[in-house]
Amino acid sequence: MWVANYYTQNETNETLKRCFEGVSFIILSTHPHSKKEAYKVINEKVNHFNIGSLFDEIHATRKYHKSKGEYILRILKKFNIPKSKALMIGDNYLWDYKYVKDIGVESLLVRTDYMKKDKRLKVIEKFTDLLRYV
After folding, report:
1. Which domains are present in the chain?
2. How many CB atoms lie within 10 A of CB 42?
């Protein structure tokens, strides 16, 4: 979960509140664990950073690249949200960007030390840069 890894709790919470007031905000996190264990790990992180109240739903996606795209399509249908009003934010090209873009949903990547630079990708350097896109 990149929010927990890259930003202080206060900066994250305040930015999320400003960005997503009145918007559905959902965690999708891929884990190699069983579904039950994956949810436990995600919820422990959410509770540790005290950010659970910011999210409408939390999902442990399955460990194959197209999984997040499939989850996003189900969530958009459930909340009756058009693809043009959705935004995926992640830190991995294959898991968080490519297959989400392939289903027609906008995606941003958070710059990390391990990612390759590619000017074609929409990348934010720090979490507050997100404000330019919402």
Report:
1. 2-132 (3.40.50.1000)
2. 21
| pLDDT by 10s per residue, the chain, length 134 | 444 444 556 676 677 677 667 777 888 988 888 889 999 999 999 999 888 888 889 998 888 888 899 999 999 999 899 999 898 888 888 888 888 999 999 988 887 776 666 666 788 887 678 777 76
Sign for the CA dihedral angle at 82, 101, 117, 38 comes to positive
Beta bridge partners, 58, equal 27
d(CA 66, CA 95) in angstroms, rounded, equals 8
d(CA 80, CA 93): 26
Strand 87-90 to 26-30 pairing: unpaired
Helix and strand numbers, DSSP H then E, in the chain: 5, 5
